[in-house]
What does this fold into?
Amino acid sequence: EIKCNVNIDPAIILATALGTQNIFYQIAQLRIISFLQCPSITEVSIHIHQKSDKVQMVIQDDGLDEKLNHLNSKGFLAMKDKIEAFDGSFTIKMLADKQGSLLQVML
It folds into this structure.
């Protein structure tokens, strides 16, 4: 069982460029699928908020998936390429002291 907290800023203004809205959905979907493959994850938080003229999505978990093998998957590499094509940024990293991982997308 995974506890999930979702926080979406109601003031978000998503660009109307083709595919921009779907990128957030696809990244969240891929990340949630990877959570299901990591039995140590018990809690996940997803935050989406406006940051200047861009929208930022942060997904954090408490898992111990130290290798982050799923980051080399074709799905994540394709998403990273799409985000960069829209002049966005994509980062994911392990948190200190094995406290989980943090994914950030800015579009």
